[in-house]
């Protein structure tokens, strides 16, 4: 009878040790996953805007002008549209929001027209004719010391 009780105690201790090991292994795994997620940047793909100065002669006095922005460190240039609406300067991406073709500006109709599927936008980039559902992307513009800078995500 006493031997049976000792055997039961040994089994119970063995079972408790196993359960404690399992519990601590589980807790260690959770903490290591949490630790790894805290070490990772919040959104590694998120890019910040880099601002590029627009030379004064490229800024339209009125209406729409297509300009190149030289990205010196990447040795490439990007085309954007600058719009002077009389009150402010707007910078628009030329990329159609339907499937990514480059839009052209038509001075006669004062519209951006996509050559791929005939999408149209007004001079502020708002959709006039489908298939695009979203307006042309506006790029941030800031003015510092009377100079205009446009933000581009590279
Ligand atoms: S890509 Fe411009 S309308 Fe389709």
From TrEMBL:
Q: What InterPro entries is this protein classified in?
A: Rieske_2Fe-2S, Rieske_2Fe-2S_sf, Rieske_Fe-S_prot, Rieske_Fe-S_prot_C
Domain Rieske: start-end pairs: 51-150
Alphabetized, the UniProt keywords read:
2Fe-2S, Disulfide bond, Iron, Iron-sulfur, Metal-binding, Oxidoreductase
What cofactors does the UniProt entry give for this protein? [2Fe-2S] cluster
Q: What is its EC number?
A: 1.10.9.1
Tell me the CDD domains matching this sequence.
Rieske
- PROSITE patterns in UniProt: RIESKE (PS51296)
A molecular function (GO) held by this record is: 2 iron, 2 sulfur cluster binding
**rRNA-binding: is it a keyword of this entry?**
no
Q: Please, which domain of life does this record's source organism belong to?
A: Bacteria
GO CC terms of this entry: membrane
| Top EC class of this enzyme | oxidoreductase
Q: This chain belongs to which protein, by name?
A: Cytochrome b6-F complex iron-sulfur subunit
Kindly list the organism's lineage: Bacteria, Pseudomonadati, Nitrospirota, Thermodesulfovibrionia, Thermodesulfovibrionales
